[in-house]
Design goal:
The chain is mostly beta strands. The protein has 3 domains: 11-43, no CATH class; 83-126, no CATH class; 131-237, Immunoglobulin-like (Sandwich). A 6-stranded mixed β-sheet has the order 11-10-9-13-17-16, with no helix packed on it. It has strands spanning 11-13, 20-22, 26-28, 34-36, 83-85, 93-100, 110-112, 119-126, 131-138, 145-148, 151-152, 156-157, 163-167, 178-181, 193-194, 198-201, 210-214, 222-226, 234-237. The chain contains no helices and 19 strands.
Length: 239
């Protein structure tokens, strides 16, 4: 029977480089080539067949969208007033539906702002606040002044139809209620308080205190001022 050569004196030629190597030191590659051990290379992963992997997108037990709108009944308490006035806010958000006011038998109570069908329009869940200004009070050297978002007596630009809240919850606001006027420095400058679309809440310097204004269409240039002290405020343009 024939035998193959072996041992340290057995040599072979590399199928890749043509160099001579000891037969015992040669290795066979994935493609069948017999090469020297320093020439041997593994099969590149990109030569393997591509395996398609599908990305599942469907949800198991998916639920369709549901209509969450529900009819809500609101009951108004009976007020012991001679006049009840319903005021429509210039900006309404989150309508709850239409409210119907029943005819009152008491002739001493008049309901104004209600049409012939006794409908008062749309009740809102709240007012969209366009921007909230953080109000603080400090003395830069010549008396206390308002700081609007850390800017001393900043000149503001308030858009018509938008609502702005002047947050006076910082303790430095104590004793300095912020109000509006069409006259520079308000009542200290011979003017009067501007109240169209203006609401207030709480006591300045305490949590939750603020002055809020919904700028009316065609509103004049306004000035914010302190009702107790002169020289604290600034200008609010209403372009």
């Amino acid at each position: 029977m024939s035998r193959f050569a072996s041992g340290k004196d057995s040599y072979a030629i590399s199928d890749r480089s043509g160099f001579r190597y000891r037969y015992k030191d040669m290795r066979r590659e994935w493609n069948g080539l017999l090469v020297g051990k320093d020439e041997w290379e593994p099969k590149h992963p990109q030569l393997e067949p591509f395996r398609k992997v599908f990305d599942a997108e469907a949800l198991k037990d998916a639920r369709p969208d549901r209509d969450e709108n529900k009819n809500t009944t609101i009951t108004f308490p009976i007020f012991s007033l001679t006049d009840v006035t319903f005021i429509k806010s210039p900006v309404t958000v989150g309508g709850l539906g239409q409210v119907i006011v029943e005819t009152l038998s008491n002739p001493n109570i008049a309901v104004t702002g209600v049409n012939s069908t006794t409908s008062v329009g749309t009740v809102t869940a709240g007012v969209a606040i366009t921007q909230t200004f953080a109000i603080t009070v400090a003395n830069p050297g010549s008396g206390n002044v308002y700081y609007i978002d850390t800017v001393q007596q900043d000149t503001l630009s308030l858009a018509e139809g938008s609502t702005y809240r002047f947050d006076q919850s910082d303790s430095s606001n104590s004793g300095h209620p912020l109000r509006f006027s069409t006259t520079s420095d308000g009542t200290h400058g011979g003017g009067s308080q501007y109240t169209t679309g203006v609401t207030t809440n709480g006591t300045p310097g305490s949590s939750g205190a603020y002055t809020q204004i919904t700028v009316a269409v065609g509103a004049p240039t306004l000035y914010y001022y302190c009702t107790n002290h002169s020289g604290m405020g600034g200008q609010a343009n209403t372009p």
